[in-house]
């Protein structure tokens, strides 16, 4: 397995960081993941360990107490964490997106206040775009903020917040009509607010309620919630970047790097599924020999390993493109699309290799089989990725007739 998903050109520091995370995953996550997942239990001890490793500040600049590492380093760490338990990588991901949005778009005061605490993991982030009737149509957001003196009053219902309960800072996208005349394009009248709250469920601050965890097929342990705003008052200085109307662009920038993260998660889950499949194939005997010696199983293993390798290469390419300062929506869309689809296929093949035992909760592959589908919809469905890819290809290959 050590031959698969290798990354050329890493610095000594990057190699050391990724190796440290891999060791942590092998010792602290894999042995307990399935038990915690079956209990739908928040992995507090694991999160505390990641906090000690400094992973909550991995991409936050050193001037704010972080490690100042690249998106590539972060993605490789996420790949390792997802290999252990995908839910843990979700806890890191939303925090990372909010920190990234603050770093890129926040005012100096917002950066000075939030980023040092986020680097330590003392403030943990969640971000909120989706709504109950929204789906992929972000322009249809109905949650709104109305100016009232030095504050805004927010109202509306948001959906699918990862870390909605355990977070203490939520980046919330709502509609703000002030200064935007009737007929303004919807995406130009959206604003991101930085909403501080107490961790937990119920009314977490006046006007803000987190009803409770949404029960899910997989992706357990991490809390996924709704967010209900009813007369929530937020100071004007908590508008991300200090200016209204920029929220859509800020969120899309965050989601773009989030797609690299989801691609990395798909790579990690696929790697683990391959490991489980290739190990079981050498232990299970039929017709007098290990099933790994049957050509049909060898073909499956060959296809699985090739998909793991291809997805990893595309994820690394997308991360490096972003790190170079270039536009990477095409590469990120491709990586997210391919990695999530391949992940589903690799997990299913490993499931098939396990035969009837794959259906048993005693075997780890059962958990992966329930987790993989989330990657097909997280940070945009396959159809959304295809739209992004198709539009960008037409920009790049515009016919000159």
Folded structure, characterized:
With 401 residues, this protein is an alpha+beta fold. It is 51% helix and 14% strand. The strands form 3 sheets. The chain has a 5-stranded antiparallel sheet, covered by helices on one side. Helix 3 crosses helix 6. The N and C termini lie far apart (50 Å).
Q: Topology as H/E string?
A: HHHHHEEEEEEEEHEEHHHH
Briefly note the structural class of the backbone. alpha+beta
| Widest sheet, order of strands | 2-3-8-7-6
Can you count the beta strands? 10
The stretches of 5 or more residues where confidence is low (pLDDT under 50) are: none
Number of helices: 10
What is the share of helical residues?
A: 40-55%
Chain-wise SSE layout:
Elements: H1 12-39, H2 44-53, H3 71-84, H4 86-105, H5 108-120, E1 125-128, E2 144-148, E3 151-162, E4 169-175, E5 190-196, E6 202-205, E7 208-210, E8 224-235, H6 247-283, E9 285-286, E10 289-290, H7 295-323, H8 329-354, H9 364-375, H10 382-396
Helix pairs in contact: 1-3, 3-4, 3-6, 3-7, 4-5, 4-6, 6-7, 6-8, 6-9, 7-8, 8-9, 8-10
């Amino acid at each position: 397995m050590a031959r698969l998903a290798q990354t050329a050109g890493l610095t000594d520091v990057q190699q050391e960081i990724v190796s440290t995370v891999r060791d942590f995953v092998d010792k602290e996550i894999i042995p307990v993941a399935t038990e915690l997942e079956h209990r739908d239990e928040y992995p507090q001890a694991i999160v505390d360990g990641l906090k000690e490793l400094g992973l909550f500040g991995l991409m936050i600049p050193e001037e704010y107490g972080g490690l100042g590492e690249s998106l590539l380093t972060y993605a490789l760490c996420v790949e390792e964490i997802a290999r252990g338990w995908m839910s843990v990588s979700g806890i890191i991901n939303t925090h990372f997106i909010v920190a990234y949005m603050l770093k890129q778009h926040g005012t100096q005061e917002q950066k000075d206040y939030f980023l040092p605490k986020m680097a330590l993991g003392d403030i943990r982030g969640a971000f909120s775009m989706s709504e109950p009737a929204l789906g992929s149509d972000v322009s249809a957001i109905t949650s709104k903020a109305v100016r009232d003196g030095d504050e805004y009053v927010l109202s509306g219902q948001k959906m699918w917040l990862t870390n909605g309960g355990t977070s203490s800072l939520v980046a919330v996208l709502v509609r703000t009509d002030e200064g935007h005349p009737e007929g303004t394009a919807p995406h130009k009248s959206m604003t991101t607010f930085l909403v501080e709250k107490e961790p937990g469920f119920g009314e977490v601050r006046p006007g803000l309620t987190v009803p409770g965890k949404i029960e899910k097929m997989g992706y357990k342990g991490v809390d996924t919630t709704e967010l209900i705003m009813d007369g929530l008052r937020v100071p004007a200085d908590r508008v991300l970047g200090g200016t209204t109307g920029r929220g859509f662009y800020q969120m899309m920038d965050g989601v773009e790097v989030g797609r690299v993260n989801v691609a990395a998660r798909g790579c990690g889950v696929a790697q683990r599924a391959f490991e489980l499949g290739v190990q079981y194939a050498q232990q299970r005997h039929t017709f007098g020999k290990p099933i790994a010696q049957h050509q049909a199983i060898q073909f499956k293993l060959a296809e699985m390993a090739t998909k793991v390798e291809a997805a990893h290469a595309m994820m690394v390419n997308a991360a490096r493109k972003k790190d170079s300062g270039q536009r990477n929506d095409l590469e990120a869309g491709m990586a997210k699309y391919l990695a999530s689809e391949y992940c589903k296929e690799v997990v299913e093949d490993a499931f098939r290799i396990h035969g009837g035992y794959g259906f048993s909760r005693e075997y780890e592959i059962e958990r992966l089989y329930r987790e993989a589908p989330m990657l097909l919809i997280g940070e945009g469905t396959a159809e959304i990725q295809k739209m992004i890819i198709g539009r960008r290809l037409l920009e790049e290959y515009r016919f000159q007739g």
